[in-house]
Known about the structure:
Number of strands: 19
Strand content: 15-25%
Structural class: alpha/beta
Shape: globular
Bound molecules: zinc ion
Low-confidence stretches: none
Number of helices: 13
Amino acid sequence: MPKFVIAMMMHETNTFSPLPTPIGSFARAEALSGAAAIAEAEGTNTPLGGFIDLAREVGAEFVVPMAANAYPSGLVTEAAFEQMAGAIVEAVAAGCDGVMLALHGAMVTEGADDGEGELLTRIRRVAPDVPIAVALDFHTQMTEAMARGATVITGYRTYPHIDMAETSRRAGRTLLRALAGEVAPRIVWGSRPIMSSTLVHTPAREPMKSLMRVASEAEDTGAVLNASVFGGFPQADIPHLSLSSVVVCDGKTAEGELLLARILDEAWEQREGFLFHPEPLSAQVARARSLDGGPIILADHGDNTASGGTQDVMSVIEEALRQELDDVCAGPICDAACVAQMIAAGVGAEVTLDLGGKVDMPAMGLKGKPLTVTGRVKCITDGVFTVTGPMATGATIRMGRTAVLDTGRMQIVVSEQRSEPYDLGVFTHCGIDPRRKKYVLIKSRQHFRAGFEPIAKHIVMCDGDGCTASDLKLFKYERVKRPLYPFDMDMRLGRND
Ligand SMILES: [Zn+2]
């Protein structure tokens, strides 16, 4: 019976985010390792859940020395990285037949631009020949160190990421075939110097849709073992930011190289399609106001947690109140002090809050700006619910203590912890039914589509302030490798352009 080390070390680092990332940020689940971590992940549509379920199905033995997953934020502290990487390397060194890693692929630490490459390099020092399957997020910043360290790599095919468990299974199945001697995985990869905006690069739409289809068909028809396309994550000022693709070949790499060139040349050809075009916030909210029916989703993508936002920027809520949108539910806003104030006042009490705006964003040149709002405390919860929608189905969400402020026009969910709203539970767990609201104002850029697109009559993207803004001209990049599209719009690749 094979024995596996299965581990998760996931973080998408937004180097412009003012939020620190110590080990405490990774403790979203009940436990960071062992039986409790396994119990929490098992059967869920998550990367760790996918590996665990596959190992169980084939009757393999396994240990989980690390199950760390933090919401995106600033640089990972050295201490946190050492604790996570140390536990994984130690478990591999103790002996195993294979390793299955759920990584994000965009971790930047205080000491390393490529956290995943560093982890894999350390594992290779203690286990040069052990096969390693790696499941990555679609927003991976791919590197040579990752390609060299891994035996198999797969990436999500969706954004919102509704295929997390399946991505792990795709990697794990190739690993099992390699262990059985059926295949001999060899990785080839490449990239193009494109910084694609996350708001327009989902595989659900062109131009990414065609690229992903080419990769998926090559894998699904067995032409190659695995093939993935990675959009990259632009809110990181690191040298290896790019749009990339990874192909896992069986023995010979010629077919994989051809596939890579086809995908990446097509991406370069279609590069204008990856540009984001900004619009004034006031015009966007006015458009939402003019639309009939509901619910109308207003997506505040300048400050979303799943890209490293502080989740306390009030600009979109302020504009919605200014334009007197009525019958709105909004949030979640992360503001522990306001939650405490509402709990102290009690349900039914009238309170005036200086809501949000507690965190400055020096890298963006933005100062925190609280919004004074008055309303009644509608309800108070523990902020815990189970996801029922298609993304991370079955996972437990912990928002910290949570309270709802009802201003009359707007019901605002306020929580102690940050949490990306991709499931209706963010509202329903505190007694608000978003299906019955005229407007649903949420801090999300893309993941909200998993739970909220099915109930939406209209979706209006709102260019609010924050460190996850989609207009890349708002960021001061100093370390990205130039030339880079779209900064150097007239650049030529040389070999094929
Ligand atoms: Zn992602």
